[in-house]
Automatic annotation (TrEMBL):
Pfam family, one: Transposase_24
Ranges for region Disordered: 1-38
Polar residues bias (residue ranges): 11-29
Record's protein name: Uncharacterized protein
């Protein structure tokens, strides 16, 4: 090489005074579920040419085709349109509820003059509002609470800073803190949980066309076994009572009564 001749850097090298470009691999990046915008529901409505029809049972639960879409849409309406400055759904006035119902009626055929239809919406909104408030509180805690949380609003409330601030103030009250401790203790006492996700038992029973005792097994037993020993014991007890019920001279109990004697009575559960 001749004296004074410059050395050409390798073709793929970078000048020493330039910052190294960082290549971030996306192969292991975590996929985050995007915001639900009801696009699937909008397509179905466009295809049908009218709001979707629903079948709502006398137990005040949506069943059959489109039942999951109603629950999902109520969740969206709750997050982005429901007034937040209420302790719970029971504190809503009819004036508060009416705009929410109207949003649903734009997408579903709902006759609110029928008690079981209105009752269904009341129950679903109540559950949805409770869930949303819990998620707000979870976000508040993950953000560090206090001013740190106030400066980091939960996504559905980013355009409603006044509501988020009110909610943060509410989370810090003595009354809320006391209820939070009690609620956590009660959840710890839950003996076992079912294996069917968020689908209502009534909707599942409609799909399977089975009796309530068989439905209990379907919900609490899978290929991996029973959810717990207590769940299996409850099932066996109900079968035994059902067998005794068929004996001559026995006090006749309906299947519903057998389930209530063994499991207790709670809305939405067997």
């Amino acid at each position: 090489m001749a004296p004074g001749q410059k050395v050409r850097p390798p073709r793929n090298s970078q000048p020493s005074n330039c910052p190294q470009t960082q290549h971030v691999s996306t192969s292991n990046s975590k996929k985050v579920r995007g915001k639900n915008k009801s696009k699937g529901l909008e397509r179905l409505i466009k295809k049908a040419g009218h709001p979707l029809n629903l079948n709502i049972s006398v137990e005040r639960r949506p069943i059959g085709e489109n039942h999951e879409l109603l629950s999902r849409e109520i969740g969206i309406v709750t997050r982005y349109h429901a007034p937040i400055k209420h302790i719970g759904w029971n504190n809503f006035s009819e004036a508060d509820k009416e705009p929410l119902y109207e949003l649903l009626k734009m997408k579903f055929n709902l006759d609110l003059s029928k008690p079981h239809v209105k009752g269904c919406l009341e129950l679903l909104f109540s559950s949805s509002y409770k869930t949303f408030r819990h998620r707000c509180y979870t976000h508040y805690l993950k953000s560090g609470g206090g001013d740190s949380a106030r400066n980091n609003p939960y996504e559905p409330l980013r355009d409603r800073p006044g509501d988020w601030t009110w909610l943060c103030d509410h989370f810090e009250t003595e009354e809320f803190q006391k209820k939070s401790v009690i609620g956590k203790a009660n959840r710890m006492k839950l003996a076992y949980v079912h294996k069917k996700g968020t689908k209502p038992f009534v909707a599942l029973q409609h799909e399977l066309s089975c009796d309530q005792i068989s439905l209990y097994k379907e919900c609490y037993c899978s290929d991996k076994g029973w959810a717990s020993r207590d769940a299996r014991q409850n099932y066996e007890t109900m079968l035994q009572m059902q067998h005794e019920n068929e004996q001559e001279g026995a006090i006749q109990l309906t299947e519903q009564q057998i389930c209530e004697k063994v499991l207790g009575k709670a809305y939405g559960y067997i």
